[in-house]
Amino acid sequence: MTNVPVRPLRVAVIGAGPAGVYAADILTKSSEVRDAGLEVSIDLFDQYPAPYGLIRYGVAPDHPRIKGIVNALHKVLDRGDIRFIGNVAYGRDLTLGDFRRLYDAVVFATGAVKDARLEIPGADLEGSFGGADFVSWYDGHPDVPREWPLEAREVAVLGNGNVALDVARMLSKHAEDLLVTEIPDNVYQALRRSPVTDVHVFGRRGPAQIKFTPLELRELSHSRDVDIVLYPEDFEFDEASDEAIRTNNQVKTMVNTLANWIAEEKDTGASRRLHLHFLHNPVRIYDSPQAPGRVAGIRFERMELDGTGNVRGTGEFVDYPVQAVYRAIGYHGSELAELEYDEHRGVIPNDGGRVLDADGNPVPGVYTTGWIKRGPVGLIGHTKGDALETIGCLLEDRDSLPRAEDPDEHAIIALLEERGIEYTTWEGWNELDAHERALGEKFTAESAERGTPVQRERVKVVPRQEMVRISRQNAS
Ligand code: NAP
Question: Domain 9-113+334-421, CATH 3.40.50.300 — does that match?
Answer without folding.
Answer: no
